[in-house]
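TL;DR need structure tokens for one chain.
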Amino acid sequence: MAGTLLIDPEFEKANLKQHGLSTLADKNVSLAQIINSTTGKVNPHFLHSFDDSSRMWIVSHVQNISHTSLKMALTVERLGLDEVTIWIVDERQRILHSYTSTAGEPVSWFEQMLPAITYEFRLPKNQTVTILLSVQDSGLTSLPVFLWQQNALKAHSKIHLLFLGVLAGKLAILFIYFFLSYLYQRTPARFWLALTNLLFLTLVVAMQGLLDTIFPVSKYAEPILAVLLAFILFTLAKVTHNLFVRLPTGFHFLNYVGPLYLLIAVMTQDTWYLSITLLLTAPIAGLLQVFSALLFRDRRNRSLSRIYLISWLFLTALFALQIDILASSYSLTSYHTALSVLMLSLACLSLGVCVELKERSFTQQQMSAKEQTISSLNYFYNLFRNSAEGLYTSTVDGALKSVNPAMCSVFGYEDEKSMLKAIQNTNQFYANPEDRELLVGELLEKGSVMGKEIKGRKADGNEFWFCISCQLQSEEGERFLYGSIFDITERKQSDISLEYLASHDSLTGVFNRREFELRLHSAANLAQQAKTSVVLLYLDLDRFKAVNDTCGHKAGDTLIKEIARLVQSTLAGKGIVARLGGDEFAVLFEGHSEDAAYLQAVKILNAIQSYRYIWENRVFTLGVSIGLLNCTEHAANPEQLLSMADAACYIAKEQGRNQIHRYSNDDESLKRYEEELTWVADINEALDKNSFELYYQHYRVLNAQQQGDYFEILLRMVSESGELIPPSAFFPSAERYDLSTKIDRWVVENTFKWLADNSAVLEKLERCCINLSGPSLADKDIKLLILNAFERSGVPYEKICFEITETVAIVKMEDTLQFMKTFNQLGCQFALDDFGSGFSSYTYLKHLPVNCVKIDGSFIKEMLNDPVDHAMVSSIKDVAKAMGMETVGECVEDEATMVALGKMGVNYAQGFGIAKPRSLKEFVSLDNDAKKA
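>> reply
TL;DR here they are.
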């Protein structure tokens, strides 16, 4: 049993739990058992819960050692307990006094002054009594129970009320200040802080039990405190969110979890669980708010974060003090009360300072933003005044509101004042007022218009072109049009000129090829739909080159212009004339029959034939070849139609010039011409796609032992189907259309590359013959190409022999000699191919520096049967030998011919009887080839 508490007149108060015994026992246990401490759990933990069948008992022995009775008071500093019973028994265990208090009963005067259940009694003199306190409740077992001398309790109550009044006054003042300032400033932080102070005030009042004097709510003490604390945490979260605006939405919801969980705990109606939830949720929710605020703090306002942290330190210290009082069952001494009042006051004041700092920072930012806005306005005003573009503002109806100096300059006014006075409506800007209506309609539909080009009217009435961009903006319920304008008259005139140049020939003024093809396409489509006649003439001047070469390009240009005027005047507007390029023209007839177009073509032919061109006392007569095409009979695009008409014109030239040829699908000449054009397309495609393939054919040495390889490079075209096409099929077209040089370039480049890549073949090589066409001999570029090929590949000059035909050598004698001289000096050899098939002039042969003569195969094939052929071969061999040249017999088909050539003294034999042509990719030396055979 605990010791006896001695009481004398100097006694003020004592904690009975420290001077007695606390027991958690069955509610039906007897007083004797409690007094003798024979049952129950002794001194349970403060977080321990009651159950339905148990009570909390506190037993304390008190002895009055004075000679007078003393007025005492017993306080249980926890309101809302379900049932509290007090017994005072003497030493014989007789009940001297008893008192029972239940939740919901009216409180005494003392209970209004202190948050406690108070029982007053008189302690007899020189007597020992036992105080038994029985508590039944569903909450925590923590029960601060104190024995007071009544006068000391009254003095303590007055001090407590004083501090409570100070705290309530501060909270009320803070609430009123922030609420009234919120009504004036409408800042959310002030509203939530005002609500926080009001809730703290309500919490203090509720904790003091003062609400029970108005409403009988003491039995709901824990739920009321939990609800108030939940709302306080919510309002503090709202204050935090408004102070630290960078907080993401996710953190907002996270800070609402604690208050929401407290409200859910209230609904469980479990007082012990609610108390535990309150003790755990409050610090966690506070920690979350502090963490989120520090994480997203305003780095421009560091004082805000510091003071906010201080306010939460005060709240944390206040909460820790209350937990300490709860755990230790302390009484609310003046020290504890003063400390609690100070902490809560400082916390609320700190939050108020935070709000003030935030608003001051916000005000400074607003002031800075306003200064920047004013600066920007000044900048934009200066920009408006000094802009090179004309800027203006008007209503949608057209009333002009403002203009800048550039706008006045564009429209020819002296200044803004005179322009605003003169312009009644912005439709005066436009040469055609309907343009403004269209502009406004588009503006209302889209909201803005960019770069619209419109013809305007200046102050003096002159028209000009301007480019306008504008948009609609609403201000104070009225819509305004903001526009920018700049003068584009010069550019517009330039554009018109460019459009003319884009569709007309700059020399003659008639349509150019591009525009003519567009017109032809349109006419052809219309003809297919309306079944009308469309006829095309293709004109190519005859003997124009003579004028150009004799008198120069200036004379040629003048002649072209005069011919264009002559054709236009002859047609008298009955057809569309275009210059296609050089000395070629075209005429398009729409709605004219083929016969009518033919008559017009005859007129043009006669007019040009009778025309005499005079230049510097020289008189020239011209002619014209005309191809006529009835476009209605052919479904083709403009390019194809022109190609057909060009083919007909070509046939007219081939048949003697200065005539008209009608295009017909059955015309054999046209078919040959179109076949050549097809070969031209195939050659170009082969060059682009690298669809040629190199072949080779060996020579045989006849009068000595074969020491190395002698072969001629041949060429094949690979078709899309993989078929090999010999040069006899496509090379005539290549020569006619100037493609032979491109083919020679391809052969040279790929031959040298192959030789460089096959060093073993190059080492054994004695002579590699490459054929060159006539145009290549006069082409400086291919000469440089060959020189570079030698340098890059490292092929020795003496191993390369260039073959040229006898006809080309004689016709292009000067170019041939120059080319041969260049490469002869480097060590290259030259062979005269197909000798005897052309002019057969030994005089020319005497002047050509060739090393070898290839006797044409037409003489070789029948030399064994034809004495004349035999004599020709022998003659050519003898002449070549006399000049120090070697000879090659072509088209050797059998061994007998080869033996005859050897006996005759011919140096080499080439033909199917020696070796067949093979792909260069599969190169085999002649000796190896013979062994395989």
